[in-house]
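Quarterly update, task 2.4: NAP-bound model.
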Amino acid sequence: MTGAGGVLTGRTALVVGANGLLGRAIATALGHAGARLVLAARTAADLRSLEEELRSAGIEAESMPTDITEDIGVRTLVERAATAGMDIAVNNAGAAHRPAPLGDLALEEADRVLGVTLRGTLVAMHYELPALPSGGTVVNIASTAGIAGAPGMSAYVAAKHAVVGLTRTAALDYAERGIRVNAVAPGSVESGGTAAQPEEVRRRIGSFSPMGRIGTAEEVAAAVLWLASPASSYTTGAVLTVDGGRGARGA
Ligand SMILES: NC(=O)c1ccc[n+]([C@@H]2O[C@H](COP(=O)([O-])OP(=O)(O)OC[C@H]3O[C@@H](n4cnc5c(N)ncnc54)[C@H](OP(=O)(O)O)[C@@H]3O)[C@@H](O)[C@H]2O)c1
């Protein structure tokens, strides 16, 4: 199935952090909606296999292995995406750490997480925003850890709160240029560290949400697609939670 006639037909999306279940689901959802794709992450082999899978579904895609902690590489990536007509940028790359109270968290580990999740997103946005045309959109993947604290996750929580701050501030700075900037804040979803847990642990994590389960990567990708599409044309600076209702409990 190609996205001919889809809501993103004629659009070009850069997906930074296109590997992993969530990155792949986002790329697939945007591609099936008609977008041409520029895919980036560090692992070239995984990017290539995604690119081939998308192409075999009739979706136009190219990949550029990139480490978002290297500024020049990010600049080159965004220049390439802009040449391809980028009008959507999704920033999904992120890194977490093992849970530990801040006093027990190695500072090198905190630097690594902040470097990818906070600084990497900031650098990507620094290059993407001026390269986007009026009508362009940025969608950042934050987290419910960007809205509230999470025990043992200080550096990750700090980085994701910063991603929310970057999203809101860029929304204000770029609204007059016709560029919308939003974030999706997933709760626990089937990807990355959550997907790597044993079934029993995943069930227990899921039981904390009112819906009684963890989310799928496709459910998060559907929110990204909405924010990337003209269907959300009056929405900017928003943080859309996709968490099975967990945040509705409040404090
Ligand atoms: N899974 C969850 O429950 C959950 C919940 C809330 C928010 N999130 C957020 O969702 C996003 C995706 O996470 P995930 O759970 O799918 O984890 P993941 O499988 O580890 O995916 C992380 C993504 O970021 C890329 N990446 C990591 N470091 C990078 C770097 N230095 N440069 C470029 N790309 C880099 C990875 O590809 P390479 O390794 O190939 O570089 C991959 O595409 C993250 O921002 C995460 O914080 C996840």
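Highlight for this quarter: The chain has a mean pLDDT of 96.
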